[in-house]
Amino acid sequence: MWRGKVYITMIAGCLLIWANTATAVSLKDIKIPNKLGLGLSVYNQNQPYRIDTLQLGVPGLDPSLIEGLDVRNDTTSTHLRIDYWILPFLNVFGLIGNIEGQTEVDLQGMDIGLPIQLDKLVVPTDGTVYGVGFVLAVGGEKWFGAVAYDYNETDLDVAESSVSAQVITPKLGLHFERGAVWVGAMYQDIEEKHVGVFDLPFAGQIPFDVTLTGSEPWNYVIGGTAGLSKHFVLILQGGFGTRKSALVTLEYRLF
After folding, report:
1. Mean pLDDT of the residues in the chain
2. Residues 35 and 23: beta-carbon distance below 8 Å
3. pLDDT digit string (tens) for 231-245?
4. 83, pLDDT greater than 80
5. Is the pTM of this model over 0.85?
6. Structural domain tally of the chain?
7. Which helix (H) or strand (E) is 48 found in, with range?
């Protein structure tokens, strides 16, 4: 199986510093959540891409024709996550799960100099994802701030494909007795590369080589968490802007 790197969406970075009761961090009275947490998450995102390079196995193709082509990516991940508070301001985590999705490049408006109209180039992505990351947090009696960083890889079922990214998620919010709310932003540094063939009517299989990046690295997020019981926590977050996303997590915090 080919091993590549894949972006997951802020999949793990969004799970921050709250347990069944939100906690304050101060110089006089340092408190932290239950240190060890296990979570099950479902995450989906949809965003436009920009084509960096596109090579088709058509002789004499004008490279400028790729400008303005519509490209969209949709990704869904289901994963398990384990995290641990090493220090009151530092949380580390790891995750493993499944990721699937597809990237569509709309070639219908592309004139290749032949009496043939191209269709959409659809590249599926499916594999096992795993990754690591950390959260730096600070807070007061009613407020908190945090910055999450995550790096993830995946074993892809699609040969000759790779997806790599880093995700940084700063947030600022308010915490209460049994929950918290926040606003923030997400930065994704992402690159996809796919090599393969697609079927062209009357011409057979045409090889392609395409490199893609996110058209807009930043979007904003809004979320909240609620303590359902002494140990269970529900986390919800939505992303808005050019990139749309949704995250649902059920977390169990131990000692």
Report:
1. 81
2. no
3. 999 999 999 999 999
4. yes
5. no
6. 1
7. strand 36-56
The residue assigned the tokens 């529900």 is: 234
Please compute Rg for the chain using Cα positions.
21
What pLDDT is stored for residue 77 in this prediction? Answer: 94
User: Strands 143-156 and 120-139: what pairing?
Assistant: antiparallel
Amino acid (1-letter code) at residue 246: A
Q: In degrees, to the nearest 5, what angle opens at C-alpha 75 toward C-alphas 73 and 79? A: 165
CATH number at residue 71: 2.40.128
Query: What is the domain extent for residue 120?
Result: 2-253
- Count the alpha carbons within 13 Å of 235 in the hemisphere toward its beta carbon: 27
Cβ-contact 167, 9 below 8 angstroms: yes
Sign, CA torsion 43/47/51/55: positive
Tell me the pLDDT tens digit for each residue of 16-60.
333 333 333 333 344 556 899 999 999 999 999 998 888 877 766
Measured in whole angstroms, how far is the alpha carbon of residue 127 from the centre of its chain?
A: 14
